[in-house]
Specification:
about 40% helix; Aspartate Aminotransferase, domain 2; 13 helices; globular; binds pyridoxal-5'-phosphate
């Protein structure tokens, strides 16, 4: 007999704690990935996912990691040798740059320091220097720094310059305002296992109709078969009636879990959900600041779903370890340039609630004291409550 799985509270920025209704929905026998009954489930899931994206375009449920879904977007819209601007201010923005490089695109990086944003006017200036740019890609919520990027403002510029606009909404989908149609987003990647509190491994993707018209007319193909949207379109048209509108087998259990999580999000009401995440995140930052710690993101751009905290010198991995071993709270270390210098806490979906955050704050203050950083153990919790009780 192996060791039993240890139960931790997942306060990492994904995967997150899973909703009980999702867990119940996936404890049923396996569905096949086609057939009339399955077709109804899949269609309902894409319809609900479209509501969360605020789009009337197509939605597919990509059976794989968020990064591969992003790769699909760039691979279909920007031909090798064509130019794409990638806005980045953290580890995941840099990853988008890397993906575009791998695909042979000519990447024009538009970077800001970790914790800062690229101002929309910098995007305009860059576009004035490069008239032949085809696309723009950006991360909505930079999970490595806890910065929310101004994707609505970038979207207006992308439209003015007639660019394909690709957005990574992996750690914002279902928790932070996202209006795919109104903000002119052509291709947008969400995720099941973060702010929706479903199981990880699948990514709902919103794709506007313009993209499908473009791939029909383009005179080149992506070099990947699975990531080629024209392959997907073929099955979306041809096998829709048999409930198989995708090229290969999909993880039906994960999709059923996602359907449940989407229903929960929509029942809560999206506006209220955005407000809840804003409120909990703000209160959490207040508590962290009361501990004498500094948050990486300035308040103006601070993320409603993840907080990156500057760590006291040399203690980042010790804090992460102590939180896990003594308190069963799993948080994450820093990424990219902030590796070893910060730690990150996710507060999304189920965990954007006092139930999870108060215990996390308490565990963090105790951890800091255990590591020799003197912190009052009541004041941060008081600051948290005071913030959520204020109007
Ligand atoms: C903003 C963002 N983009 C991309 C990814 C990568 O997603 P995946 O690990 O599913 O490829 C993550 C994962 O945390 C993320 O937060």
């Amino acid at each position: 007999m192996g060791k039993p799985i240890r139960r931790h509270i997942l306060m990492i920025p994904g995967p997150t704690e899973v909703l009980p209704e999702v867990l119940a929905s996936i404890s049923l026998p396996v569905y096949p990935h086609y057939g009339r009954e399955w077709a109804e489930i899949y269609e309902e899931t894409t319809r609900l996912a479209a509501e969360v994206f605020n789009t009337s375009g197509e939605v597919i449920i990509f059976p794989g990691p968020g990064s591969a879904a992003l790769e699909m977007g760039i691979a279909n819209l920007i031909a090798p040798g064509e130019k794409i601007i990638v806005i980045s201010n953290g580890f995941f923005g840099e990853r988008v740059e890397e993906i575009a490089h791998h695909l042979g695109c000519r990447v024009i990086p538009l970077r800001a320091e970790y914790g800062k944003i690229v101002e929309p006017k910098q995007l305009e200036e860059t576009l004035e220097m490069h008239k032949d740019v085809k696309g723009l890609a950006v991360v909505h919520n930079e999970t490595s720094t806890g910065v929310r990027n101004p994707i609505m403002a970038y979207g207006r510029i992308a439209k003015d310059y007639n660019l394909f606009y690709i957005v990574d909404a992996i750690s914002s989908y279902g928790a932070i305002e996202l209006r795919v149609d109104d903000w002119g987003i052509d291709y947008c990647v969400g995720y099941a296992g973060k702010a929706l509190s479903s199981v990880p491994g699948i990514a709902p993707v919103a794709i506007n109709h313009e993209v499908f018209r473009f791939i029909e007319e383009r005179d080149w193909k992506p070099s990947s078969w699975f990531l080629d949207l024209s392959v997907w379109k073929k099955y979306m048209d041809k096998w829709k009636t048999i409930g198989h509108p995708y090229p290969s087998t999909v993880p039906t259990h994960s999709i059923i879990g996602l359907r449940e999580a989407l229903k929960t999000a929509l029942n809560e009401d999206l506006e209220k959900r955005y407000e809840r995440h804003e409120k909990m995140a703000k209160a959490f930052r207040k508590a962290v600041k009361t501990m004498g710690l500094e948050v990486v993101a300035p308040e103006e751009y601070a993320s409603p779903t993840v907080t990156a905290v500057k760590s006291p010198e040399g203690l980042s991995s010790k804090i992460v370890r102590e939180m896990l071993e003594k308190f069963n709270v799993m948080i994450s270390g820093g990424l990219g340039e902030l590796e070893g210098k910060s730690f990150r806490i996710g507060h999304m979906g189920l965990t954007a609630t006092p139930l999870y955050l108060v215990y996390t704050i308490s565990a963090l203050t105790r951890t800091l004291n255990n590591l020799g950083i003197k912190v009052d153990e009541c004041k941060p919790i008081e600051a948290f409550y005071k913030s959520i009780e204020s109007r």
